């Protein structure tokens, strides 16, 4: 059984991500862990060191968080009905979002984190909400970010841009493979050539990829030298892409695309769900 962590702040944005996860894994045995991290607007040292329960007091903030989670489950069951494959658990915790996710990944034996992200907003051209950027940077674990207002589409075509510099492993690509197998998706690996030919490592990794995706629909696309965002954009224009997947290898390929100042040129990314896989978990 899969364990899927679903952080929520009760916004429409996070609800949309939860609805996506339920539909993505409709035919898979899953426990969905709905997690709300709450922090009192004003609290003193007493609140941090000693819980209100020690004073015989009801903690209204925690109670509101738990009530919100209970209502959310009722809403989901009302919309999707009772699926024998699915089980829901709730966690209301006085914690920061990042620390809470890190703890729950271990405590609940989590396989995947699914969360909403706001996407490009008008003139600001913000690619990701601040929470999502923080999670991508600090959580060394597979995270699937769902853009706000994205209506569920079966991921038939998955785009997997790579610089072929990562030493691919079976375990690293497990989440991607499981999603692809569930939906008989086609995986499109995209490499933007620099005109200098492949290094020995890149050539080895290019040969390795089809063996890791054997018995699955897989195609390798070699694109002429251009900016990577432009290459991804062109591929999306020419093909119907339902999910974008990248490995965060902490090298220039991922970091330069997503965390540089000129990020406004790639607002289109958030038209589709985006799975980020760390090069190493931990």
From TrEMBL:
SUPFAM superfamilies the record matches: Adenine nucleotide alpha hydrolases-like
Gene3D superfamilies, sorted: 3.40.50.12370
Domain UspA: 1-147
A Pfam family that the UniProt record links to this protein: Usp
Family stated for the protein in its record: Belongs to the universal stress protein A family.
Protein name: Universal stress protein
């Amino acid at each position: 059984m899969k364990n899927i962590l679903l952080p929520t702040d009760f916004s429409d944005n996070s609800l949309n991500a939860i609805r996506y996860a339920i539909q993505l894994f409709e035919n898979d045995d899953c426990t969905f862990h709905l997690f709300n991290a709450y922090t009192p607007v004003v609290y003193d040292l007493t609140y941090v060191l000693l819980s209100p329960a020690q004073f015989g007091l009801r903690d209204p903030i925690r109670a509101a968080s738990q009530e919100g989670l209970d209502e959310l489950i009722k809403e989901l069951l009302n919309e999707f009905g009772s699926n024998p494959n699915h089980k829901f658990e709730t966690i209301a915790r006085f914690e920061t979002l990042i620390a809470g996710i890190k703890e729950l990944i271990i405590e609940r034996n989590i396989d995947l984190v699914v969360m909403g992200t706001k996407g490009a907003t008008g003139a600001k051209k913000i690619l990701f909400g601040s929470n999502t950027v923080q999670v991508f940077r600090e959580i060394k674990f597979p995270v699937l970010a769902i853009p706000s207002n994205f209506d569920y589409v079966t991921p038939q075509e998955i785009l997997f841009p790579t610089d072929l510099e990562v030493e691919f492993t079976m375990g690293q690509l497990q989440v991607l493979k499981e999603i692809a197998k569930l939906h008989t998706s086609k995986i499109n690996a995209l490499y933007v050539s620099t005109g200098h030919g492949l290094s020995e490592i890149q050539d080895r990794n290019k040969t390795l990829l089809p063996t890791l995706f054997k018995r699955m629909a897989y195609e390798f696309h070699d694109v002429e030298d251009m900016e990577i965002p432009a290459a991804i954009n062109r591929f999306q224009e020419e093909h119907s892409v339902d999910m974008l997947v990248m490995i965060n290898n902490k090298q220039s390929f991922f970091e330069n695309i997503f965390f540089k100042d000129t990020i406004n040129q790639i607002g289109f990314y958030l038209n589709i769900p985006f799975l980020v896989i760390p090069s190493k978990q931990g």
